[in-house]
Sequence to fold (140 residues):
Amino acid sequence: MGTPGNGTVQAAGCVLWRRSPLDGELEICLVHRPKYDDWSHPKGKLRRDEEPLAGALREVEEETGHVAAPGPALPTVRYVANGRPKQVRYWAAEAVAGSFVPSDEVDRVLWLPPGPARLRLTRPHDRDLVDALLEALRLT
Fold:
């Protein structure tokens, strides 16, 4: 299902969040992908016949090591990647268990408050998802 008949690459991900173990404030998980040297939200291409939410939660676990409890749907992001249209469906998701182990795909994660997370994200459409998460959690 990564690429249906219309040629659009189908992907899914989450804006992963937790309450800081230090002060209880909201933190957002960002992943660093060495292949692109960028900071983004955990996401990836869907497998054949995979439901988008299931794919989003799978990608979160693969990239961050965390199991997540899904929350509200967030805006779908559309852009062109490698000359092909791509559509990424997103959900808010709370990290409930797990720990990060570096891999070739994701070598670092950061847990940051919303403001610093917005600044660290590489792409503007990823920054907009921080605002969408805050709105979805009614923290704006």
